[in-house]
Design a protein that fits this description.
The chain has 122 residues and is mainly alpha-helical. It has 2 helices and no strands. The protein is elongated, with a radius of gyration of 43 Å.
């Protein structure tokens, strides 16, 4: 029995088992990769065709971006003036609303005061 354990635990047997296991794992990985490679090849072809289409459109889009950038640059001062105008309008609107609220409050207070005077008979 001791000889069987010695044979099983011999470095040559352990090395052979490790080599066989590693070869089997390598074969399994290669088979799995080859199965995925076909799918990946199809996806790569679709991505490349889409990329080719986008590359073909790129010069036209660059030209359009340059045109729009020039147009935007020309509109910047006007945009700032419009912003300033809008801010001024909003400030006037707020001032008018505050004045209206103040006037309404004064009228309410006056009407309450008049009501109290009438109730008191003054």
């Amino acid at each position: 029995m001791a000889t069987l354990v010695d044979i099983v635990l011999a470095p040559e047997v352990i090395s052979a088992v490790l080599i066989v296991v590693s070869v089997l794992m390598t074969i399994r990985v290669i088979i799995g990769f080859s199965g995925e490679a076909a799918e990946l090849r199809g996806r790569l072809a679709r991505v490349e065709s889409r990329l080719d289409k986008l590359r073909a459109e790129l010069p036209e889009k660059k030209k359009r971006v340059e045109e729009l950038s020039k147009a935007i640059t020309a509109m910047k001062p006007r945009e700032q003036r419009l912003r300033d105008y809008y801010d001024a309008l909003m400030e006037i609107r707020l001032r008018v609303e505050r004045e209206e609220q103040k006037r309404e409050e004064e009228e309410r207070v006056k009407s309450e005061r008049d009501k109290v005077r009438r109730d008191l008979g003054l």
